Amino acid sequence: MSDDTLPQPERLEGAPHPRDTARLIGQDAAQQAFVDAFNTGRLHHAWMLTGPRGVGKATLAWRIARFLLATPLPDPNAMFADPPPTSLDIPADHPVARRILAGGEPGVHLVRLGGMGSSESERAKAFTEKKFSKVIRVDEIRELGRFIHMSAADGGFRVIIIDDADLMNTAAANALLKILEEPPARTLLILISHQPSGLLPTIRSRCRTLNLTPLNAAEVAEAMTQAQVQAANTDALAALSGGSVGGAMRLSLMGGAGLYGELVALLGTLPHMDRAHALKLAELAAARGGEAKRDLLFTLIDLLLSRLARTGATGTPPSPQAANGEADILKRLSPTPHQARVWADLAAEIGARARHGIAVNLDPAALVLDTFFKMAKAAPR
Fold first, then answer.
1. pLDDT classification of 337: cutoffs 50, 70, 90
2. Alpha carbon distance 238, 183 (integer Å)
3. Longest CA span, the chain
4. pLDDT digits (tens, 9 = 90+) for 299-330
5. CB 26 within 8 Å of CB 66
6. Which site from 62, 76, 217, 372 is most exposed, i.e. has the minimal number of CB atoms within 10 Å?
7. Could you tell me which residues are beta bridge partners of residue 302?
């Protein structure tokens, strides 16, 4: 864990690290399933945490690590054994909890995207300059052998967290498979996966799966309060993020709910588009350092087109509304299943064009304006 405090490409700036999160909200079933396995002696050697991004998979992984390192395994032969644990909660002043919080627990090894360089200073520089590898390489998995070997002497349990397993290249996946086929004693592997279908079937078959589900609006609001991310429109954020706390926090920190409201207002002027309003939104993407706003704009446009298509296909706008007047606008512009297909096809076309335009450095304002013109053309007269 020596480099766990380095800048991390997958971290959301302004949000707490998953290991620092006091409680996991909205995932009681998954947590209880692990506790039950622990109490009954059916603790599988490898667990895969799946579900949408931002619903608490990494937080659960760190809660499991903290619990397992701080809780003695049940002894069926003990006459005066402690009562079995009922949750994954560990007191904040427990030595394991303090070491994990400080990034100094020797019983945990985190596998994540690696920097370009072997020394800590080289890795820190690589992360800072965003020159990190885009995949988890075989070297990161091979380090596990040294961790397992060096840690076996004290007889304690060890936890390996792979965040996220979807990023392993082929060599890394094959190296992990060898470990799973011959699991080391008293070692628990936790794989975090957003898209488990992309992993090797032989890896999936050797893991017990815990599937985490999207949160409701109240749970999203509670989780954001815990993370000290203040937002007045948590219902809209929950709707836009699909029940993802991470997604809701990202939208809140980047002003995503307000920007979505601007898009809905522009949509309300179709088919006769308010060009001044469209130009104002396009200029956000063209501003200095506007790459993040450009990407957010296209994410929200894709979401808006998806909600349009769903409205036409089902006859009912998604609930709750994510912006004032959204429901009426969606019903007017997507009144039939045929129009739903038009919006769905347009979403695929715009997504492909946006990816191409970004790859070849097209003018971002022109790319956004072209998108708005295509939406106006697709709107029913």
1. very high
2. 40
3. 79
4. 999 999 999 999 999 999 998 889 999 999 99
5. no
6. 76
7. none
